[in-house]
Structures are given as C-alpha cells and as structure tokens.
Design a protein that fits this description.
With about 475 residues, the chain is an alpha+beta fold. It has 18 helices and 12 strands. A 5-stranded mixed beta sheet has the order 1-2-8-5-3. Strands 4-12-9 form a 3-stranded antiparallel beta sheet. A two-stranded antiparallel ribbon has the order 6-7.
Length: about 475
C-alpha cells in the first residue's frame, strides 16, 4: 500500500502543478469568453460552476441577458448590501426554491416572511454556542467509531472513498444529536434517497435557469418522487412517534425543538413545521459538513506540509487527550486550514436572491423578481479580491492576516440574517473530526487528476474521493 500510494503521489502530472511546484487544487478552468446560450445551458446542467468565464472572476458585476437577465454579483460591498444591510428587500429566488422546497417544505432554508422569522426566533436558542457545545461528546463518539472501522477493515491496501465515509460520519452525528440514534437503521435508505434527490431535483435544469414557477413539473422531479417519498416518510414518521412521547428523560435536539417556543409569540412549531425543519437539519447539517470534511481531507493529502503542520499543532495542544471545546479554540492553524478549505470549496456554491422592489446594483436597474446570483465559488476565487485565489494558502486565515479580508468577500455559510444557523455547530464538528483523525492517520490521493468539484445544491467531489488512508507510521513525516 505504501509504495503504491507514494508512487501515485509522486507522479502527479505537471498539468496539476503550477509554477513553483505548488499543487493547484481541482477546479474547472474558466472559459476564455462567455458561452453561447446552448453551451451555457449544457454547462449549467452538467456542473454549474463550469459555466463561468474569465470575466466572472475579474468583474464586479456580470449580467447574463441570454439567461433572462441573471445578474452575478461579485462586489463585496454589494454582496453585503444584498445579504446583510438590505436583506429584507430580497427573498430566496424561485430557482433556489425549486431546488430545495420539494424535500424541505417550508423549513428554515426555504421559508419567507413571518414564517421564516418565527422559525428563526424559535430555533436560534438550539444553536447557541452553549447549546451545541453539549454535543461534542456525540461527535467524538461517532468519529471514534469511524476510526475503529478504518483500523479494522480487511482490505487495507485499497483506497477509501472519503466522501462516502464523511457522509456516513456526519449522518451518524445528526442521527445521534437530533434523534438519539433513531435514524441509524434507515441510514442506507435515506442515503440512497438523498443521493437520487441531489442528482435530479438539485441539478440545475431549464426550468431552473429560466425561473419557471416552483409548481412546473420536470423529468428530474418525477424521477425523484420515490426518493422524496422515502425521505419524508422516514423522518415524518419518527417525528409523529416522538410527539406522542414528550416526557423523555434525556432530550435530544428534536425534543428541544418540539418544546421550544417563539420568544415573541410564545407559540410552538406545528407538526408540519417541525417535520420541515428536521428534514432541513438532516440535509443541511449532514451533507454540507460531510463535503467540507472531504475537501479538507483532499487538500491535506494534496499538501503534506500543511497536513504535518496541522498534525503537529494538534499533538501539541491535545497530546493524548480527546478534543474539548476549550482546546479546539487553540487549534489556530488547523482552524485556518478549515477556513481555507471552505474558501476553495464552499459548501453551497451558489446563492440565489430576487428583489422585492426595483433597485440599482452596480449601475444596473434590477426589476422586481429579477434573479440575482451571489456565488461563493466565484467570489472566493475572484482575481481582484484574493492573492493566489486558486491556491491553498491557509496562512491567509491566521489571526495576523485575516483582518484584511473584506466584508462580503468570504461567505462559506452565507451572511446576514439568513446565514447558516448551524455554522458554529459545523465548525465544532469539523475541528473535532480533524483533531481526532489527523493524529492517527495520513492521507494520500489515489489519483489527484480524477478529483472534480461538482455543483448541485451543495459542492461535492464528483464520483467520490478515492484516498489511501493508513496509520500515521506508514507515511512518515
């Protein structure tokens, strides 16, 4: 195993390295000029981040008239205006709702207006730092179980699909923290259902591109119906059973959600709203974090010097002790690695908005309802905003450096009132997993040339992430 993996790592083709020998993380090359309509439609349908041309990575605003006047916004001040200072003037786009509302209903990611405000007020206490810090032992237990699987597997000379491994891990974390493990037995069914959903409904198609109403049927939506039925029936059935058992002695997040009331109105969520939000937590809390962990593993495998530096820091801070909330705060470089991975591979590559009123953005008059796209993928790689935007440079997020990052230029969890409510939980989970796994194992890519980031509703490694995983002693520093 060691010789094969080392050979693969050493024979990385010259096309995968830039000047100076620094590996260039996987990314589609921007087109030299803007694509025509049919080529654009094909690119968006295949992999939305492959659609962008060089102008998208250099200009503050790009308008795509052939696509119905979609306005791509890259200017950080305007990004901040749309998502933060004037957020009330913008709602999630029809395109976004087409992707997510079939599975998430009227949950926190898809609701608007008073329904969203009431849900956000109700849910917010469940994701305070004090609340989610109580789950660190559950995260450690799930990660330890994964470590044991890796150590005990029979076929140690074969690579692991780290994308699938991280999907399983984060699913088990959500199952344990939200449902006290009650979803464990349905893991394969839900994974299969969600995989079909992400590859069908979450694929950007013609109906999405041209902003057709949510109710317009498509072939992808019809293909996804059985998967959605499985997903809804499993989750909604569990919620219904739990509503009949409100006196559990060790409440999990689902119990707390059922008991928590809106601090403004004192009302609790209806059963439908509980179901919609639990499905939201399951999708958003497991798929996005799994992808983030997979991309961190990929980048550390691609950059052994960063892997060694992070491991040394973890050894120094933790020693033989398991990670705790306080010790995670001292993992300065490891946190910078995670933040840089989230820059290069933001969990949600596209954010869609539409204005409720006519506005002017970048000197362009935007009509009510016109589609506005903010792409963390593009903003995070913008040539004007970042030095070495295509390269993995975690040092840029060290405390001495990250003060120079402009508001609106870094948004892996969104910004403003509709930013990801679980981002603190996600970072705690990411750092706990890395701090548990990295001292024990080293990663080597099976074939760096086959790694392709693919945009659906989230950003994932297309076809998985094949990595040799071996005990630390096999790949010496």
């Amino acid at each position: 195993m060691m010789s094969e993996a080392a050979s693969l790592a050493e024979t990385m083709s010259a096309s995968e390295r830039s000047r100076g020998g620094r590996p260039r993380p996987a990314a589609p090359c921007p087109h030299p000029r803007r694509l025509g309509l049919f080529a654009a439609i094909r690119a968006i349908n295949d992999n939305a981040i492959s659609f962008f041309d060089e102008s998208a990575y250099r200009e503050a605003f790009v308008e795509y008239k052939a696509l119905g006047g979609v306005l791509l916004v890259n200017d950080p001040d305007t990004v901040h205006e749309v998502l933060v200072t004037r957020a009330a003037n913008y709602i999630k786009s029809n395109q976004y709702r087409r992707l997510l509302s079939p599975s998430l209903g009227n949950g926190l990611l898809t609701a608007e207006g008073e329904a969203w405000q009431a849900t956000r007020r109700t849910v917010a206490p469940l994701f305070s730092p004090r609340a989610y810090s109580q789950f660190i032992d559950d995260i450690k237990a799930c990660t330890d179980a994964m470590v044991r699987r890796w150590r005990e597997r029979d076929d140690v000379d074969s690579p692991l699909d780290l994308s699938a491994e991280m999907q399983r891990l984060t699913y088990e974390v959500i199952s344990r923290t939200v449902f006290s493990g009650a979803l464990d037995e349905d893991r394969v069914r839900i994974h299969n259902a969600m995989a079909l959903y992400f590859d069908t409904v979450c694929r950007i198609d013609l109906a999405t591109i041209f902003n057709l109403p949510v109710w317009v049927p498509t072939l992808n939506r019809m293909r996804a119906r059985p998967a959605l039925a499985v997903y809804r029936s499993v989750v909604d059935g569990l919620v219904a059973r739990r509503l009949g058992d409100r006196d559990r002695r060790t409440p999990d997040l689902l119990d707390r959600l059922m008991r928590t009331s809106d601090p403004k109105t004192t009302a609790t969520l209806s059963e439908d709203m509980i179901c919609d939000n639990i499905r939201t937590f399951l999708v958003a809390g497991h798929d996005t974090t799994a992808n983030a962990l997979a991309w961190i593993s990929y980048l550390l495998a691609l950059h052994p010097e960063a892997e060694t530096r992070a491991r040394d820091e973890i050894d120094e801070v933790l020693g033989d002790r398991p990670p705790q909330v306080e010790s995670l705060e001292r993992l300065v470089f490891t946190r910078a690695v995670a933040k840089e991975a989230l820059r290069l591979y933001p969990p949600v590559p596209l954010i869609g908005r539409q204005s409720l009123t006519a506005v002017t953005l970048g000197g362009r008059r935007v009509k009510p309802g016109q589609a506005i796209i903010i792409s963390p993928w593009v903003v995070h790689r913008h040539r004007v905003l970042w030095q070495g935007p295509d390269h993995f440079l975690p040092e840029r997020f060290l405390p001495s450096e990250d003060g120079g990052i402009r508001d609106g230029a870094y948004l892996p969890f969104g910004l403003g009132p509709r930013s990801c409510i679980g981002m603190g939980f996600a970072m705690q989970e990411i750092l706990t997993v890395v701090a548990t796994v990295l001292p024990r194992f080293r990663f080597r890519l099976a074939d760096a040339a086959t790694v392709v980031p693919e945009a659906r509703a989230t950003l994932r490694p297309a076809g998985g992430l094949s990595v040799f995983v071996a005990p630390r002693s096999v790949f010496p520093d």
